Amino acid sequence: MEWMRSEVAGLEGAGILTYLVVTALTTLILVAFFKRQHKVWLISRIPGPISLPIVGNALSITTDSVALFKLGVWLVKRYGQMMRVWIGMRPLVIISGARQAEALLSSMKHLDKSHQYDFFRPWIGTTGLFVSKTKDWHTRRKLLTPAFHFKILENHLEVFNSQSNKLINKLQKEANGEEFDIFPYITNCTLDIICEAAMGCSVNAQDNSESDYVKAVHRIQHLIQNRMIVLWLQPDFIFWLLGYAKEQAGLLKTLHTFTRNIVKTRRILYEQKRAGITSEDDKHLGKKQRLAFLDLLLEYSEGGAVLSDEDIREEVDLFVFAGYDTTTVAINWCLYILGRHPEIQARVHKELDAIFEGSERAATMDDVRQMKYTENCIKEALRLFPSVPYIGRHLSEDITIGKYRIPAGASVMVFNYALHRDPEQFPDPEVYDPDRFLPENASKRHPYAYNAFSAGPRNCIGQKFGMIEEKVVVSSVLRKFRVESVTPRKKLQLLSEIVLKPKDGNLMKLFPRVH
Question: The pTM is what?
Fold first, then answer.
């Protein structure tokens, strides 16, 4: 009988334990369910299209970048400056008003990038400035800020000028009044500029656009773009199953091996220089001992204690990625829009003629400072065609924007293309008017109405670098040529990729200028 009582007691104990476990699990599931439902309710209060269970609005997302961009523009017109969509089970809030942008971008609490940026990590790492989480970002930003001091940027002027001169020589054969696509010329020029500024060596894209490194840069960006917008490519398993992971691994090997070899070589040269050893290899540092971005990182690394060689590799790859496509499209859009407005282009010619007086000398930093109207033309082109059409943030805690509360875990995206077309901030927003950026006019606008280089604490660290480069390249072209754009504004097909590109290139006609 004793063993029977023991058996019953054991069963009762097991039953109680099972009951407690089941109750605890049920409670946890219910808590998670109601938390989820509360978040869904908060998001659902925000205007937006009807979504389906599980897939949300994902079935409306097309792989056609032109159609996708048109859809985004239409949604903003339909639902206003704050709207929501569901990408599968993930909520995405899209904002396009200056006050909404300020609430998000000015905050020190919402600095993490949205999950779409995760697809850059295989290329540019996890701790780099672009995709790092808030804690790592603060440390890295503080460390790298001195590398973008104006005096250091001045050292890159030689690179801007030499590569711009090479571009002009390439364009000479097109200056016959016949239409051609200038986009590839600008693309290769800016890639040469950013690689030489970042790594201290040119990849010679202007002379050899078919090199493995150049092709890998183009292709990896295409793969990343596809994963960002195509929902079913985002799971790693499907990406691997379709063969893209293997292709990406090959591209990354090409890109990372190239950069690592440069880092290794420059590390040796840097250590020799510190030790007072000189050699023939010192020529890699340039005729005037010009320091590349990589050399500055080696200085900051403290022998690897602060930045490892792999940390440096990540930042150099980031500098190439972030400083290449963005400046490419900025220069192209500026030339495009000036080619549609000959009267404004004439004012740029007048300014450049006053600065250079018909000479063919290289631009100095003083010249760059005097290009006030040229700079306004670039800024206004970036207003109409922002290099980066979207900027995303992941919310680590709730945020209230206007009358809506957006829960933690959601992504919020600033739609710069629509933000820059707010008639309250920019009257007649489709009109190209560089005078909007005269100091007396710019001061009247909301400080977050213009977001070409992002805004707030996580703004673009390289915006001064980019603007100087753009001014040098644009001025180099316009000192030599008059440009005419072939495609009317109404017929432009815009690709909503990592950057905003013209689908069919930038068809132009070039005419030599006679001074």
Answer: 0.89
Q: How far apart are CA 44 and CA 38, in angstroms?
A: 10
Residue 294 near residue 316 (C-beta atoms within 8 A): yes
Token pair, residue 456, equals: 């707030």
Q: Which residue has the tokens 């476990």?
A: 21
Q: How far apart are CA 162 and CA 167, in angstroms?
A: 9
Q: How confident is the model at residue 509 (pLDDT cuts 50, 70, 90)?
A: very high
Q: Judge contact between 330 and 341, C-beta under 8 A.
A: no
What single letter denotes the amino acid at residue 372?
K
Residue type, 485: S
Model confidence over 11-42: pLDDT tens digits? Answer: 566 677 776 777 777 776 766 655 667 788 88
Are residues 256 and 125 in contact, defined by beta-carbon separation less than 8 angstroms? no
Mean of pLDDT over the chain:
87
For the chain, helix, strand, coil in percent to 5 are 60, 10, 30
Position 72 pLDDT exceeds 60: yes
Residue that is written with structure tokens 């300014």 in the block: 351
Bridge partners of residue 86, in order along the sequence: 91
Alpha-carbon distance of 171 to 509, in angstroms, equals: 11
- Other beta carbons less than 10 A from residue 375's beta carbon: 21
